[in-house]
Specification:
The protein has 251 residues and is α/β, with parallel strands linked by helices. The chain has ten helices and seven strands. Helix 4 (117-126) packs across helix 6. The longest helix is centred in the N-terminal third of the chain and has 14 residues, at 42-55. The protein is elongated and about 60 Å long.
Length: 251
């Protein structure tokens, strides 16, 4: 059963009392496990909810499709786990993650992504995520990740563990783009994909002057002279995703 409340809805076993109106403070029923699913794609949410409910016999599953609904549900309930898509409309998953950690520092968050581990996994973990899982391998691995995080651990695939160990061991020789802030990294990827300052400004709701300032900082930090050098570096280091160049990140 599902109820909707200003972009929020609840799917649960057993039945829960309805949420009435945008300012309602009705709490979730008292059940052993409460999981919150945040993703802007209804079919993806439905698939994750079905997987969770098939595995856990007594679970209350909340869901939301946007950042505002997510934060409202986090403030309202003390969830055992949040499953959070990294590429949300408006604000990014990393932005939402940061706010969740401010509201509920101990609330576990598992990041779900369409992007490869190379691009965002380490940034997600550094931002406080308890794990990183790509959506192409959901299913039983999602269940394994949930159980791992609920047990108090972090879910990191073997391939990611190796990259993370390498990242922590290497300091002076780490890639130049690791010196960038999340917003600088985002702008760098958009520049590397050939987007103009005007296009970047429009997509990120920034002024062209602000985008130019970010570009100057990026070139300075990466010790480069122009966009051509930036594009070449991005291609050589695999930080460009031409299908998703502008996945939003925190400032």
């Amino acid at each position: 059963m599902q109820q909707k409340n200003n972009g929020q809805s609840i799917s649960e076993k057993p039945a829960a009392p309805p949420l009435h109106g945008g300012t309602s403070r009705t709490s979730a029923p008292s059940v052993p496990l409460k999981i919150l699913v945040i993703d802007d794609h209804p079919l993806v949410r439905r698939g994750m909810i079905e997987t969770i409910q098939e595995e856990f016999s007594n679970v209350y599953v909340g869901q939301a499709s946007d950042s505002q609904s997510c934060i409202e549900l986090v403030r309202r309930e003390n969830w055992d786990l949040v499953l959070l898509d990294i590429a949300m409309p408006g604000r990014s998953g990393l932005d939402i993650l940061r706010e969740i950690k401010l509201e509920r520092p101990k609330m576990p968050v598992l990041i779900l992504s369409n992007y490869s581990e190379d691009q965002f996994a380490i940034r997600s973990l550094k931002s406080g995520a308890n794990g990183y899982l790509t959506k192409d391998i959901l299913g039983q691995e999602l269940v394994a990740a949930i159980k791992r995080v609920l047990a108090g651990g972090k879910y990191i695939r073997a391939s990611l563990a190796e990259k993370l160990a390498s990242y922590l061991d290497v300091d002076a020789s780490k890639p130049l783009h690791h010196t960038l802030s999340n917003r600088e990294y985002q702008v760098m990827r958009m520049i590397a994909c050939g987007q103009t300052p005007k296009e970047i400004a429009a997509e990120l709701s920034l002024s062209i002057k602000t985008v130019s300032t970010f570009r100057s900082r990026i070139l300075k930090k990466m010790m480069m002279k122009n966009n051509a050098e930036l594009m070449r570096y991005a291609m050589e280091n695999g930080v460009v995703d031409t299908h998703h160049p502008s996945v939003p990140l925190e400032s």
